[in-house]
């Protein structure tokens, strides 16, 4: 891999946001196993352009995200590509926890009473981070839940797999355009843990290798070539 430029760890049950430049590689590492990293993507040059989960799944004929998949905006462009993945399954259909869901499952711990041990939820975490850039409730969309696996049974029931990502699991995202990233490490909404799970996620930034014509993500689905071409045109006239 290329030289490590920056590394830090986001504790479990916290949130952060950052702008990633085109050509950056972001590695996420599930430090202890069983983490959930919720993530949303926006175009910092046009915040109306955001991650589109239905198009991402539909155009690549999949229900899960893994190596080779690209994450699309609602303008048909690619925010990032999954170039490496030791997990094999990441959820992008189940959304977030809310304040009410966290309270019903794990009780209530407020900041006023518990300070940094209070129970945060994914929905409010995205609102806090998005508010720093002028984003609000209407700007939230279906998010990615890195390291989380949810299967659909024959009767339609959705089943969460708590053993999906062992300690040290990682996923590498190559950013194909400048991207505003909203991130949290709050629990997955279907996590059945008895206690509020606080699982840290380490993030690392590197320079990405250039995209060649034999690139795995470019050729993973025929539709991805169209997405990369949309990006090329965007940067050509941008």
Q: Short summary of the structure?
A:
The chain is of the alpha+beta class and 238 residues long. Helices cover 21% and strands 30% of the residues.
Q: In words, what does this structure look like?
A:
- The structure is a single chain.
- The chain has 238 residues and is α+β, with helices and mostly antiparallel strands.
- It has one domain (4-237).
- The chain is 21% helix and 30% strand.
- The strands form three sheets. A six-stranded antiparallel beta sheet has the order 1-13-3-11-7-6.
- The radius of gyration is 17 Å and the shape is globular.
Total count of domains: 1
Number of strands: 13
Main sheet makeup: 6 strands, antiparallel
Distance between the termini: 30 Å
Q: What is the string of SSEs from the N terminus onward?
A: EEEEEHEEHHHEEEEEEHH
Mean pLDDT: 96
The proportion of residues forming helix, as a percent range, comes to: 10-25%
How big is the Rg?
17 Å
Sequence stretches where pLDDT stays below 50 over 5 or more residues: none
Strand content: 25-35%
Morphology: globular
Helix-strand category: alpha+beta
Total of helices = 6
Q: How are the strands ordered across the major sheet?
A: 1-13-3-11-7-6
Core attributes:
single chain, alpha+beta, globular, 238 residues, 6 helices, six-stranded antiparallel β-sheet, five-stranded antiparallel β-sheet, 13 strands
Secondary structure: elements and pairs:
Layout lengths: L3 E7 L4 E6 L3 E7 L6 E7 L2 E5 L2 H7 L10 E3 L5 E8 L13 H8 L4 H4 L7 H10 L12 E3 L3 E3 L5 E3 L8 E7 L3 E6 L16 E7 L8 H5 L1 H16 L1
Antiparallel strand pairs: 1-13, 2-12, 3-11, 3-13, 4-5, 4-8, 4-12, 6-7, 7-11, 9-10
């Amino acid at each position: 891999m290329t030289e490590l430029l920056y590394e830090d760890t986001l504790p479990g049950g916290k949130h952060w946001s950052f702008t990633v430049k085109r050509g950056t590689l972001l590695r996420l590492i599930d430090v202890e196993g069983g983490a959930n990293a919720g993530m949303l993507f926006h175009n910092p040059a046009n915040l109306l352009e955001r991650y589109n989960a239905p198009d991402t799944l539909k155009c690549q004929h999949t229900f899960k995200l893994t190596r080779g998949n690209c994450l699309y905006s609602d303008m048909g462009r690619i925010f990032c590509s999954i170039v490496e993945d030791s997990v094999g399954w990441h959820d992008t259909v189940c959304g977030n926890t809310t304040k009410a869901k966290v309270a019903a499952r794990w009780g209530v711990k407020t900041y006023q009473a518990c300070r940094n041990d209070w129970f945060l939820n994914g929905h409010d975490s995205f609102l806090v981070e998005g508010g720093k850039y002028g984003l609000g409730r209407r700007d939230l969309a279906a998010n990615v839940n890195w390291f989380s696996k949810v299967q659909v049974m024959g009767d339609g029931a959705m089943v969460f797999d708590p053993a999906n990502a062992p300690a040290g699991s990682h996923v590498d995202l190559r950013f194909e355009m400048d991207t505003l990233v909203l991130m949290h490490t709050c629990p997955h909404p279907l996590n059945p843990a008895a206690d509020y799970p606080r699982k840290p996620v380490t993030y690392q930034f590197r320079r990405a290798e250039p995209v060649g014509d034999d690139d795995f993500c470019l050729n993973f689905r025929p539709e991805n070539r169209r997405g990369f071409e949309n990006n090329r045109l965007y940067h050509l006239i941008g």
